[in-house]
Amino acid sequence: MATGIIQTGQMEVTNAPSSSTHVLRVADLGASVLYPKTVYGAGTAYSLTASPAAVDLGTTDPEVTLDQAGTYLLLARALLKYTGATIPANQVATIKLRRTNNTAADVTNAVTNIALDVVTTRTGLVADVTIPPTLYTTLNDDDVIAMFGGLDGLPSLGSVDVTEACILALRTV
Questions:
Q1: Which region holds residue 79: left if phi is over 0, alpha if psi is between -120 and 50, else beta?
Q2: What average pLDDT score do residues 15-35 get?
Q3: Rounded to an integer, what distance in angstroms lies between the CA atom of residue 80 and that of residue 48?
Q4: Whole-model pTM?
Q5: Local structure of residue 118 (DSSP, 8 states)
Q6: Residue 40, Cβ neighbours under 10 Å: how many?
Q7: Do the beta carbons of residue 63 and residue 144 sit within 8 Å?
Q8: Which has the higher per-residue pLDDT, 35 or 57?
């Protein structure tokens, strides 16, 4: 009987088998969760723009459909990289989760802002970004949660790219 553990910040998700349903226990919340939904974005790096937009990695985009009403624990991360970027003044990158249907709106508290360094033609890691764990409640059985990203100003040369992204949604009971 194997048990896996995922740790994010101060939260611990323990994977434990049950009779006919795979059950996950969220230790810090004292709740059980069912029906994990996960997506790992794959494909081509996405260059952030000056307006927040859905992260489009080409092959598989970081978006998950919540196909049951209920409360979900949302966990998400993105890897940001400079690609030949020149940023002459302080700028901020924003990564967030957004419901894209059923009256589109940002998911409350599911946002992270990253201060970018002033750089000249840099290629390399910006940050491994974690969006704060967020509880999200829906009455719908088809909400689509997607990762969005943007910059408050474009680099004068090169780009700031999302090269990896994932979302995990755990329905609590």
A1: beta
A2: 47
A3: 9
A4: 0.81
A5: P
A6: 12
A7: yes
A8: 57
